[in-house]
Amino acid sequence: MARPLTQNIRPGEAPLDLAAYRQTGGYDTVRTVLGRTDPAEIMRMVADSGLGGCGGGGFPTGRKWQAMPPIGERPGPRYFIVNADEMEPGTFKDRLLLEGDPHQLIEGIILSAYAVQADFAYIFVRGEYGDAIRLLGHAIAEAEQAGLLGKDIFGSGFGLTILLHAGAGRYICGEETALLNSLEGRRAIPRAKPPLPQVSGLFGCPTIVNNVETVCNIPHIVRHGADWYRGLGVNGAAGTKIFGVSGRVKRPGAFELPMGIPMDEMIEEHAGGMQDGYTLRAALPGGASTGFIMAGDMDVPMSFSGMAAAGNRLGTGTAIILDDRTCPVAFIGNLQKFFARESCGWCAPCRDGLPWVEATLNAIEAGAGRDEDIDLLTGMTEDLGPGRTFCALAPGAMASWATGLKYFGEEFRRHIRERSCAWN
Amino acid sequence: MSTAEAKLDEGERAAIADLVAHAPTPRAACIDALKLLQARRRYVSDSALGELAGLLGMSTAELDEVATFYNLIFRRPVGETVILLCDSIACWMLGRERLAAHITARLGIGAGETTADGRFTLLPIVCLGACDRAPALMIGDALHGDVDTARLDALLEGSLWRGR
User: Closest-CA residue in chain A for B26?
Assistant: First the structure.
């Protein structure tokens, strides 16, 4: 099975340095593509590959790029930004790529920036990822010394500077327009769209923001072609994906598998199934912003389209397991506490609604719930849902909440009825 | 290390000028500059914030608006070592509350508090991206996964020993 994204990653070992990375054929594309291949052709190749945004949105990467005005129409600075602000609860896949193969990311940035003709790139890494920051800084310096970055790379006429920004916290920085505000030295609050960042992004210039894993796919697509990439997926999906499983499984971890692999196969074969004494009850397929899937429904393919067909979202593709010995009300309460705290406060439904949800859930868990709480919380799924807020934070919070209410409603009512939590 | 309340010294001013020189606008350097001062002073005092605002051409209010938004910028004194204990879902399921209780029993501090001797501050943190090694925490800059109370004791001992 092809594992392009993790082919160079050896657990517990330092990542490949520049020389070793080049020996694997790394950066060959920089010489063959820059100044020789039409940037529009790279965009078309990425669009044809079926690659979708791996930060959780799944939006087709090629189409995102194609929404950038061509450099002829819009001269001036253009930015290509890597979102390495991995903070979605249950998500630990970008860490693997950042620490495991930093040159793969840099090669991806060079090719992506060339495709959209951006002359500046930022890598926005969350501040807690100290190892990733150090390793990336070293890899960027190696690439600069080798002439892979800087002015007129290999005489192609294309130049690129990569800047590394270590964040100062807050989940909302991972929202692409909030991330732009943070890079400008402002509070990380989302911006209204339109205009899209492709038209008016960082400092008002055309800007692309892509997730780490998305960018790491680019060298492989450029090297082997869109058809090859599409062929890596199963069940109608394209490429590979870094999936992961956490919770009470035998082998929690992250693993690169074909996009579209059934969820139960991922949990049973790759995460080793449940630990002894625990039974699989449900899972969130890709972080705290995705909806529950019950144990009996896990033949669903782990892909953007497969999850959409099931009324859910793939999110980051790193699943969180709910076992039979964990209270679902408390589980959901933990998720809502996270969202309430991380709301940036910019719009009222999120700022005021989420603490209300959190407090109500805490009351139910503590045995102080009231019958009308269920109706109130049900209404919240609409009030905080899509279309009511600047960004996807509150709607994401409602995904696990709405499905939790659907599947575990009787448990909520039991908490209220018995005025206590049966799991404690 | 400078004391938090002291005026910015020449080294700090030069380092901030360097950040500004490499940033598209002075303001774009403000988060890096806050982190730079904090690394030397442990936290960003009112006086340091005011001086920095002047260097960046921002008002004190504009800079404080930024400083108070980000949870890794400290505007109040913290201990020598900050413990960031993950409280997101995987760590919560796998025993982070037990670790929090153990820290409280051992060091006498809860979330947001600093030990009387100024050694440790305990803060909650969003998912540290180490869910496969839950429960996880950071002690200073170092990430630790698969932590139980015995391991936590050893880590705290090690940290105390290094602090002497």
Answer: A185
Q: Is the ipTM of this complex over 0.85?
A: yes
- Inter-chain residue contact B87 with A129, CB threshold 8 Å: no
What is the CATH code for A240-323? Answer: 3.10.20.600
CATH 1.10.230.10: does it fit domain A328-418? no
Q: Which domain holds residue B148?
A: 81-163
Model-level pTM? 0.97
Q: Is B50 in the same domain as B87?
A: no
- Which segments of chain A belong to CATH 1.20.1440.230? 328-418
Q: Write out chain B residues lying below 8 Å of A167, CB-based.
A: 31, 70, 72
Q: Tell me the nearest-neighbour CA distance from B89 into chain A, angstroms.
A: 6
Query: Taking Cα atoms as reference points, which of A176, A323, A332, A315 lies closest to residue A243?
Result: A315
In a domain, B73, yes or no: no
Residues of B with CB under 8 A from a CB of A: 23-25, 27-32, 34-35, 65-66, 69-73, 84, 87-90, 92-94, 125-134, 138, 141, 143
- The domain tally of chain B equals 2
Asked if B131's CB is within 8 angstroms of A320's CB, the reply is yes
Residue by residue, pLDDT tens for chain A (424 residues) are: 799 999 999 988 999 999 999 999 999 999 999 999 999 999 999 999 999 999 999 999 999 999 999 999 999 999 999 999 999 999 999 999 999 999 999 999 999 999 999 999 999 999 999 999 999 999 999 999 999 999 999 999 999 999 999 999 999 999 999 999 999 999 999 999 999 999 999 999 999 999 999 999 999 999 999 999 999 999 999 999 999 999 999 999 999 999 999 999 999 999 999 999 999 999 999 999 999 999 999 999 999 999 999 999 999 999 999 999 999 999 999 999 999 999 999 999 999 999 999 999 999 999 999 999 999 999 999 999 999 999 999 999 999 999 999 999 999 999 999 999 998 7
Mutate to test the interface with B, among A334, A344, A365 (most CBs of B within 10 A): A334
CB B127 within 8 A of CB A88: yes
